[in-house]
């Protein structure tokens, strides 16, 4: 079973079209494996797409984490400086 095709999959559009074409050309034989090669290709494409998205999300999360840590460090330094100036 593949992922729902109701949302755009820009990386896999050609493979999706190939599977849909196979289903149209083989309305009955698709149940007996006529489109298995296209299905396997689609599964591989979805896996690559998921890996790409996961890597991109990890990269963005790390960048966001570094930004927050930098801002927290700057705030601590400002507070420490303000405490020293208050003495």
Automatic annotation (TrEMBL):
Family: Belongs to the CMC family.
UniProt main location, coarse: mitochondrion
Record keywords: Disulfide bond, Mitochondrion
Position of the signal peptide: none
One Pfam match: Cmc1
Places the protein is found: Mitochondrion
GO (cellular component) term, any one: mitochondrion
Sequence ranges of Basic and acidic residues compositional bias: 51-63, 74-87
Protein name according to UniProt: COX assembly mitochondrial protein
Region Disordered: start-end pairs: 51-87
């Amino acid at each position: 079973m593949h992922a729902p095709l109701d949302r755009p999959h820009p990386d896999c559009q050609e493979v999706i079209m190939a599977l849909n074409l196979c289903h149209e050309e083989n309305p009955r034989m698709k149940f007996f494996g006529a489109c298995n090669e296209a299905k396997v290709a689609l599964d591989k494409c979805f896996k690559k797409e998921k890996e790409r998205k996961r890597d991109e999300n990890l990269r963005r999360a790390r960048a966001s984490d570094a930004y927050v840590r930098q801002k927290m460090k700057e705030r601590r330094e400002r507070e420490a400086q303000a405490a020293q100036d208050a003495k």
